[in-house]
Design brief:
The complex is a heterodimer of chains A (252) and B (298).
Chain A (H helix, E strand, L loop, with lengths): L1 H5 L8 E15 L18 E15 L3 E5 L6 H8 L7 E6 L4 E3 L11 H11 L4 H15 L14 H12 L6 E5 L7 H16 L3 E5 L3 H7 L2 E6 L2 E6 L1 H11 L1
Parallel strand pairs in A: 3-7, 3-8, 5-6, 6-7
Antiparallel strand pairs in A: 1-2, 1-4, 8-9
Helix pairs in contact in A: 3-4, 3-5, 4-5
Chain B lengths: L1 H13 L3 H7 L3 E2 L6 H10 L1 H17 L6 H21 L9 H23 L6 H6 L6 H27 L11 H25 L3 H15 L6 H4 L5 H8 L2 H13 L7 H24 L8
Helix pairs in contact in B: 4-8, 5-6, 6-8, 6-9, 6-10, 6-13, 8-9, 9-13, 9-14, 13-14
The chains are: A alpha/beta (252), B mainly alpha (298).
């Protein structure tokens, strides 16, 4: 298993994502029991707690790999995805990539007050599409999302599944060399999930690299060629999907 | 934990130099702040995002109100009525300038443009946390969109302001055409302020509490409902010098000079606002850009 980390099979391409000793700290305000100064207003500073979300994660991913990321809730998977995407900067260490990875997450309601239609256009413009491209691909995106009849409604009226579908459709409208999918598949219904998984496999086949965070071991085994297991901010295991998933399931 | 040790042990033995792998493959650090020139080029490329966002936002905030876009002009009109009534009664006659109503309306409307850009700009990053956390784009687009939104709203505001000023008997002259020029300089100034405050708010949330206080100080000290010259006539000279160096009050003076009779400005006033606007924009752009990697972290 450890050998897999170091020597990638000959069929794989050049390194495309390299993480070198990535640490991420958050400063947050703790309250309640953690705030043990008796609630004095002037001692607020002691309520700030340092959360060490990633504690030195290193790996090398090559072109054409699709990497599953597993771990229990709060283990640092989403932080890792955001760091790979360059949305959160590592406190120590760094992530290197051949191009800017695109992250597709569930917790990102774009602009809840705006209609789905406007969110699609804004999302595309923010991703760097030109105005003409955005209008051109608009129908395609809406069709993929299957939300044509709700596209005029504000996004806050959407269910979480519908929101995830729309976001997924926006993100995959563009060919990304590196795509990070953070549990975005778990929310859609069966038909949409199948469609998305197919799209991810297509992307991978176009010499793209995909990172997939999921709690569905079936999705992981179906789509991934390698799995990282993150636990309490550490990379616990890195290797063959069947092997790592088994170890992870046994540990519960 | 056994597996953990094995993985770590193996890595120690092999001692992989990830840094070197990345360098050999020609990979770049993700999320690295681009050089200023490249950053601004990217900003320009994605200007449609800021533009579209500003337009959508106006419609979204207004569509929930019955009066919709009307509120953009109703608000400053009410502020002017309130201050006009209160200070028209309370303040001594001597402090009140000629043509009080147009004087006040121009002051309130122009000041509102500054104060709204200031407060919206300061929240540009913190109130769009989910957008920042999910998409990659130059973060400067967000304060830019906030100021753009104020510029769009300014168009009906200027129209209503011109209407009120004309109705109160001020002559409509060619110099009115200079009003958009003043507002263009002011937009540059406001953008600089918005960029600085957007970054400060990220570092220290308390800034959002301070901004209304600062705005209030500026509101009372910029000569909106009284004439600075008249009020400070018998006071030490330095007070008027200080008040005259305040770019906000000069912006008000400049707009009044074009629209309301009896208000004059000198070349010095124009120079001060142009220098202040350019300086603030340059400082704002550099100050904001330098923290580009910070914005997604908390």
């Amino acid at each position: 298993m450890t050998e897999k980390v170091n020597t990638a099979p000959a069929t794989l391409g050049a390194p495309i994502v390299v993480a070198n000793d990535v640490h991420v700290d958050y400063r947050t305000h703790a309250s309640g029991k953690a705030l043990s100064n008796g609630g004095s207003l002037f001692k607020r500073q002691s309520g700030i707690r340092l959360v060490h979300a990633l504690k030195g994660v290193s790996f090398e991913v090559r072109e054409g790999e699709s990497v599953g990321v597993i771990g229990h809730n709060g283990s640092g998977k989403s932080t890792l995805m955001r760091t790979i995407a360059g949305l959160t900067t590592a406190t120590k260490g760094a992530v290197y990539a051949a191009s800017r990875p695109a992250l597709l997450g569930v917790n990102a309601a774009l602009m809840p007050d705006l209609s789905g239609e406007k969110n699609v256009l804004l999302g595309m413009l923010a991703m760097g599409h030109s105005k003409a491209e955005s209008t051109e691909q608009f129908d395609e995106i809406v069709e993929f999302s299957g939300l044509a009849e709700f596209i005029d409604l504000p996004m806050k009226t959407y269910s979480s599944g519908m929101q995830a579908r729309l976001r997924f459709s926006i993100a995959v409208s563009r060919d990304h060399q590196i795509l990070l999918v953070d549990e975005a598949l778990a929310v859609g219904d069966k038909a949409f999930r199948d469609k998305s998984e197919q799209r991810i496999r297509d992307l991978r086949d176009q010499a793209g690299t995909v990172f997939l965070v999921s709690h569905s071991m079936r999705s992981i085994k179906d789509t991934c060629t390698r799995v990282l297991w993150i636990d309490h901010g550490n990379l616990l295991m890195d290797g063959d999907p069947a092997e790592v998933v088994k170890a992870y399931e046994d540990s519960k | 934990m056994r597996r953990c040790t094995r993985l770590r042990g193996a890595r120690l033995v092999k001692n992989i130099d990830y840094e070197k792998i990345a360098a050999d493959a020609g990979l770049e650090r993700v999320g690295a702040r681009p050089p200023l020139r490249a950053y601004l080029a990217e900003l320009w490329e994605r200007r449609h995002f800021a533009y579209t966002l500003a337009g959508y936002r106006i419609r979204a905030t207004m569509s929930e109100n019955r009066l919709g876009l009307g509120w953009i002009v109703i608000r400053p009109i009410f502020t002017a009525i309130i201050f006009g009534t209160i200070f028209g009664v309370v303040m001594p006659k001597g402090s009140r300038p000629e043509n009080f109503i147009p004087f006040l309306v121009v002051g309130v409307f122009t000041f509102e443009f500054f104060s709204k850009s200031f407060s919206a700009g300061s929240k540009a990053i913190t109130s769009n946390a989910s957008l920042v956390r999910s998409l990659n784009f130059p973060r400067m687009l967000l304060p830019l969109a906030s100021v753009m939104q104020q510029v769009f709203e300014l168009i009906p505001i200027i129209a209503v302001m011109a209407l009120i000023v004309a109705v109160t008997g001020e002559p409509v002259t060619w110099s009115w055409l200079l009003v958009p020029v003043v507002f263009a300089i002011m937009t540059t100034f406001n953008l600089g302020v918005a960029l600085v405050s957007a970054r400060l708010t990220v570092h220290l949330r308390d800034v959002t509490q301070i901004i209304p206080l600062l705005t209030r100080i500026l509101f009372y000290s910029s000569g909106i409902f009284y004439s600075l010259d008249k009020v400070l006539k018998n006071k030490p000279d330095w007070m008027l010098t200080l008040a005259d160096a305040n770019p906000i009050s000069i912006f008000l003076k400049l707009v009044r000079a074009q629209m309301v009779e009896g208000n004059v400005v000198t070349a010095r006033d124009w120079v001060i606002v142009v220098v202040a606007a350019v300086l603030l924009l340059v400082i704002g752009v550099i100050f904001f850009w330098r923290a580009e990697e910070r914005y997604g972290r908390d």
